[in-house]
Amino acid sequence: MSEQEHAETPDTTSEKLVELAKRRGYFFQSAGAYGGVGGFYTFGPQGAALKGNIEDAWRDRFAVAEGNMEIDAPTIMPEPVFEASGHLEGFDDMLVECPECGESHRADHVVEDNTEYEDAESLPIPEVEEVIAEYELVCPNCGAGLAGQAVEAFNLMFKTNIGPGDSQPGYLRPETAQGIFVEFPRLKEYARNQLPFGVTQIGRAYRNEISPRRSIIRTREFTQAELEYFIDPEADEPDLSSVEDVTVTLYPASEQDAEGGTEIETTIGEAVAAGIITDQWVAYFLGVAKPWYEAVGVDMDRFRYRQHLPGERAHYASDCWDAESEIDGNWIEMAGFAHRGNYDLSKHGDHSGDRFTIFKQYDEPRTVERATVDPDMSYLGPEFGGDAETVVEKLEELAARNRSAFDGETVEIDLDGETREIPVETTGFSLEAKTEAGEHITPHVVEPSFGVDRVVYTVLHHAYREDEVDGEERTYLDLEPEVAPTFVGVFPLQNDDELETEAREVAAALREAGLSVTYDDSGNIGRRYRRQDEVGTPFCVTVDYESLEDEAVTVRERDTTAQKRLPIEDLPTALPAIRAGDLEFEDLEG
Ligand code: GAP
């Protein structure tokens, strides 16, 4: 839902949150001075800090703790990259335009929102047109009938020109992943040519969404945190021992298809043993991700993993599970965990001049029989003229792929759509025993792909609370200390030079201890507490007249509003320990 769509009096938590986000500097539609444009949001001071903290937490878990590399690739890439990746051809959504008001809509969303179809994205376009006509669906904007309107495939990539003129088209990347895949020939060197290895990237992705909606949930520019984990499918298996006991709520494709199908409460280990999650690497990363989501503040009662239905999967994926969070009764996708097979590396290998394989050393050298050809050019030259070299390549490829093709008197090749016969005796076909130290294999890829903006939104939504304090209504964000944009607010009780000097010294000491601190001396103390509660600041420290005597201050905890009197000198060690999770507020000696 865009900001303009919200009612005058916010009703749902989402509406209240969007209003709070704008007022308190979390996020708001960008370029408002020029009327704004759908699908672009600016993170304000609080939002940028929260997003940065979530990105840091992701980096700590998925790059540092897993021993993976991190890179930072350009956001614009040349056209051949996306020809190879399949995005130019297949990264489309279904577009239907209203004949009356001209508004563009995602045809599959119009169908899903108004019929019993749950996965309209997987339907072919003619079928979507039929459903629109059959159900007499109307424009969500003006109510005009959409029956008979053409549904078109609309490519979501933003196109640009690299340099002057239009001779070198480029595209803003629709996923950060391609920046990793195209660099594989160099990245494998940094991994010393050893599988498995992982490469992460946190950065912007761009999609020209037909109808961006629900504030930062579906935008045209957003941040992804992606891990591409390269494996040898025949040799590499994850160690599941660290995640096998992680409890998960799963919604497998089979349950979604079944009448009365339900979510399943299980553990990663049991789900693998029962064949519910078939790929062990996907299972491993689902097991790693769940505690991570919990640690940054996603409510685990409103979290599940849902398997993609076969028609729903992206063009590259052989299996995919989404991490979903519940927002005002709807499930939204926060991340996808896909098995991409060797799709991407093979495509880039085919389209570029570089090698997207890795040399896999055998334990012992192996003697293998290789089929080779040594064609007689005095025959092929006169027979095929300028095509003779192509014929040689085709014979080499055929010998490697299907040696039995050379069993008869003649061998057949396809030349420009025409079948040509060549006497086997002119091909120089033979079988040679060769001793080889290893082989070139194309690694497979398992990809946990997180949408950072959707994590930010979910964390804020799940943290939104309303209660009553001292007879007054209060709104606060129950953010985890690890991700809260500001950890502590420091206030002088009143506008008084001595108190202000002392409070500024306390703030400086806490900043030096590595905490994010806000100093506030405007308005009465109750209002300052409310301000910090609303942005989710876990603690407030108030310096009063007694502090000048006893060198102690009042520390107030956000959720309970409980207060303790603590020595100033203890704060730079106690508060960072609470933030790190090593100490609880209740345990502080007050
Ligand atoms: N490399 C795989 C990939 O890009 P995806 O499911 O298309 O997969 C991954 O995107 C994540 O990016 C999604 O789970 C979602 O959280 C986020 N995302 C995708 N499109 C988005 C959009 N228009 N606005 C905000 N986040 C988006």
Protein model, in words:
This protein is an alpha+beta fold and 590 residues long. The protein has four domains: 18-76 and 157-355 and 443-478, BirA Bifunctional Protein, domain 2, CATH 3.30.930; 92-155, Herpes Virus-1 (2-Layer Sandwich), CATH 3.30.40; 358-441, no CATH class; 486-587, 3-Layer(aba) Sandwich (Rossmann fold), CATH 3.40.50. The chain contains 19 helices and 28 strands. Strands 3-10-11-21-16-15-14-12-13 form a nine-stranded mixed beta sheet. It has a five-stranded mixed beta sheet with strand order 25-24-26-27-28, sandwiched between helices. It has a three-stranded antiparallel beta sheet with strand order 4-9-8. The protein is elongated and about 105 Å long.
What's the SSE blueprint?
Blueprint: H1 13-24, E1 27-29, E2 41-43, H2 45-64, E3 69-70, E4 76-78, H3 79-85, H4 87-90, E5 92-97, E6 104-106, H5 107-114, H6 125-134, E7 151-155, E8 159-161, E9 169-172, H7 177-181, H8 184-190, E10 197-206, E11 221-231, E12 247-251, H9 253-257, E13 264-267, H10 268-273, H11 280-296, E14 303-307, E15 319-327, E16 330-341, H12 343-351, E17 358-372, H13 377-384, H14 388-401, E18 410-415, E19 418-423, E20 430-441, E21 444-451, H15 452-463, E22 464-469, E23 472-477, E24 488-492, H16 497-512, E25 517-519, H17 525-535, E26 539-543, H18 545-550, E27 552-557, E28 563-567, H19 571-579
Parallel strand pairs: 3-10, 12-14, 24-25, 24-26
Antiparallel strand pairs: 1-2, 4-9, 5-6, 5-7, 8-9, 10-11, 11-21, 12-13, 14-15, 15-16, 16-21, 17-20, 18-19, 22-23, 26-27, 27-28
